[in-house]
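Consider the subject:
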Amino acid sequence: MGWLDGGMSAIVTRPIRALHPSSAVRGHVDDLIDFVAASPSSFHAAAEGARRLEEAGFRRQDEAEPFDASPGGHYLVRDGALLAWRIPQEVVGDGRFSILGAHTDSPAFKLKPAPSVTTAGWSGLGVEVYGGPLLNSWLDRELGLAGRLVTADGTEHLVRTGPIMRIPQLAIHLDRGVNDKGVQLDKQGQTMPVWGLDPEADIMAHLAGLADIDPGSVLGYDVVSFDTARGAVFGPDDEFLACGRLDNLSSVHAGLTALIEATDTEAITVLAGFDHEEVGSGSRSGAGGPVLADVLSGIAAGLGRDADGLRRMLSASVCLSADAGHAVHPNYVGHHDPVNQPLPNRGTLLKLNANQRYATDAVGTALWRTACDRAQVPTQDFVSNNALPCGSTIGPITATRLGITTIDVGIALLSMHSARELAGADDPYSLARAATAFLTL
């Protein structure tokens, strides 16, 4: 049965806590906090997602081997990307894909080559800005480093520190006008983290020691900063969630939940957790690269489909591009559309843009509203103020590369791209429930 055959009742508008057990809502957000804590880099997010999939019975696919098209769950990890899929016991007709796309990376600071530096007696680190972080939000926080080290034999070693460094702000006594002019940071000269007072300190030797490998064997690395503070639910009714990397681990976590739970479906369900979205998606593990197409064509070949068979499969397929969006900001209301003003805990966002910065169209809108109705969760529309161009997502890239109907959705945030973002504590659960319904349409 196609999704249009199922009909549609009135759109759900009641708060999620009135429709679902509060214990399930709270349990989900607590599990999201655990997932973020285990995922300080894209490589860790892919590894943690793979671990959870293994626990759920998914089998790892070696990309050098023919694709396993047997019924059940499969996954592969390519650098910081995680791709996973479930093949039903019987693939009906030509078959079709129901895909949820998200991304594993977040804005941060990345270690430069020869990162250990000494300035005025302080041991500091040379870092490069990754993506578009709110720079001032990274000041005066206990930060860690996480990522991968690659040794001469090609082995990748995941590594993470505890609280190890800090980007200190200049005292107001030395910059009396800072509250009038605002914090304006030079990206090269004023974002250096400090991590000690030993002029001989070597961050690479420290990281290699944590990975229990010889520092001299490390020939390459991808290591980024992260906020070591754990996510927290707060507010008089526990209605808010403060946490790092909600953009976009909230969607990766929802996708994992949905893929594991969506067992009763005719479609081949797929989770695509891409890397490098924050820097344009142009990489072998990004949405602009071949990884999703590689997986879909591999599945099709494993099912005995030729190129025309894959084309027919794609013509019946859909993709949900899940990425965080903006809640209306109470202190900057004029930056938002005057009519469509999403709030936390009022439902996940359906993101629309006339200039195709989001891929949602009328067909996708109807599909998403159907999924939310069946999941008994509310949804709300997001559209930008005409005077402020919006960002984009993997949605338009996926629609362009594969030619399939694509819908952009996500939870509403304040302080997006801050080291610590703010969401409604109920919204991650709503997104997971709607995503599960989407995969089973």
Notes: The CA atoms of residues 240 and 315 lie 40 Å apart. Confidence is low (pLDDT under 50) at residues 1-10. The longest strand covers residues 108-119. The chain has ten helices and 20 strands.
